[in-house]
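Worked Example 4.2. Read the sequence first, then its structure tokens.
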Amino acid sequence: MHNSESEGKCLPLVERFFSVQGEGYHTGKAAYFIRLGGCDIGCSWCDSRFAWDPDLHPLVETDHIVNSVILSGTDSVVVTGGEPLIWNLNYLCSCLKNKNIKTFIETSGAYPLSGKWDWICLSPKRNMPPLSSIYKMANELKVVIQDGNDFRWAEKNRKLVRKDCFLFLQPEWKRFDDVIPDIVEYVKKNPLWRISLQTHKYMHIP
């Protein structure tokens, strides 16, 4: 890894776009999305496999990415992946904060946290669980439900986050019809949880 990468001054950019947050607590809010390449977690249902291999995506100067954010006119940025915390995000966040832009991250929590964030969405994966240090920093816990076993995984993670952390169960998109009835019943019996839907897919937007 070159110094520019280790310092976060260049990042493997998969895509960037100005859109609307489609899932979780901030559903419906406009935001600029930065998707970074690289992920070794390997979820079978992942809908962004194209981002797994960082070598397939060009290293782009972080300053250039930030300039694109500024030109969009947005007031907030969502950094996602892949698994964005594979990379050092201190410099990216510092540049955005200098422009009074809010920073949001969506992460599995499997790598150490870098960067300064206004909102951390923790989406834990069973095959590569989060580091213990991130649980108390998470503002939002979002657990993807693929089958009945995932409810137990959700509860295990719920016990580790702060009491004021927002809790979401999200149906795996390809199994939506199969799992949504169980999720609805679960939320009715366990009102601490809310349902997160991938509304951007219904709206046919990125």
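Now turn to a second chain, presented in exactly the same format:
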Amino acid sequence: MNDGEFVKEIAAKDEAFSQWYIDVVKKADLADYTMVKGCMVIKPYGYALWENMQQCLDQKIKATGHKNAYFPLFIPESLLKKEAEHVEGFAPEVAWVTHGGDQKLEERLAVRPTSEAIIGSLYSKWVHSWRDLPILINQWANIVRWEKVTRPFLRTTEFLWQEGHTAHKNQEEAEEETLKILAVYKEYIERDLAIPVLAGKKSSNEKFAGAMHTYTLEALMGDGKILQAGTSHNLGQNFAKAFDIRFLDENQEEQYAWTTSWGTSTRLVGGIIMVHGDERGLKLPPKVAPVQVVIVPILFDKTKQEVLKKAQELKTRLSEKFRVELDDRDAYTPGWKFNEWEMKGVPIRLEIGPRDLAQQQVVAVRRDKGNKITVMENELISTVEKWMGDIQNNLYMQARTRLEENIRFADHYEQFKEIIEEKRGFVKAYWCGCEECENQIKKETKATIRCLAMENNKEKGKCIYCGKESMSPVYFGRAY
């Protein structure tokens, strides 16, 4: 068995990024295709990664006062159609149920593309007085959107996500909620997933269907394309009016509520792969890695039992603080195991053989840097603990540097097109606010406005397309 074959089976990242991505997803045992077009199975290792991500974010959401609930998967057609702009935005992607058993339904049921409609109909029953507000609810659920082109985690017909839905008594509270959640997402994505993001507001063209406005977090992937990592929507009173969410305020006057919605999904698993992965596979941030430490014993017939016994002792000690795997499989060589666990992105590998046993030490290897050191047994836990923080920070800083190096300013259209075509990344430029300019840029370059810059800007510039004066710098990019 050739130890190097395991890694050779993935495409070269720099030469064929899309194929590299698919190869890593399958080779690292994250997911696989199914007989249902556009639907994947998330395998145990991939689902363990998602569970860790879910736990990190769930704690942060609950810390802000939100509570989890669950709403129906099916939405009556008449309910979905109540908010016209919303249903128009999702219409091409909606999957419909027309029969129950062999009986045709009197009314079609949409398979949840998002839950504003069903939740709005229930909030209209629950909200009567200003005392009933705010309502702060989140749900973890599956979503179905009939996509034409799919790719595991990034865009699938069915995917997993969380979606928050809140109702408030005035515009100020709704806006505060929208920005609060954006900050929660930013902390989660940057600190737990080690992915740096740009925060900003979506243009009218790019905002969520039916929203007053949308805030977004945009991340740079390894191929220079952009991934929308999370969004938070101020829905204004649009959905409250559509679904009749009314209440009596402190003056006993009837008012419509102000609502928000926000969400992140399993596409962030794809983000982790594309931001941190390399030519040997995954590199997982320790905070969410399914396995944080793998122990690979080096076995020979004469010392096999002693080495295995020590390896098990080390696993027991380390498991008090870390997620640990002992790879004692006989059917594979140590070299094969090294390659496999590197492919799976395990942050730290520990090797122990008869020589290490005699000297009361282990060999430790970092996945992010590949450096190998000898660690005395009595220093192992403190070393691993320090490395966990170092690896998490190093992955973030590497990605942060790459992001900063790939934000380029363009002051004329030819320069803009050259950057988009040859270098990709983010292009910062001025935009006049005209949808026609935005649409023509998208048509001619396949680049979209990822977000309006949130930083205050007092300088004027000229629209990258039409040349009109503008005070609106925005970030463009080609996106997934």
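Notes for the reader: The CA atoms of residues 286 and 390 lie 10 Å apart. The chain has a mean pLDDT of 95.
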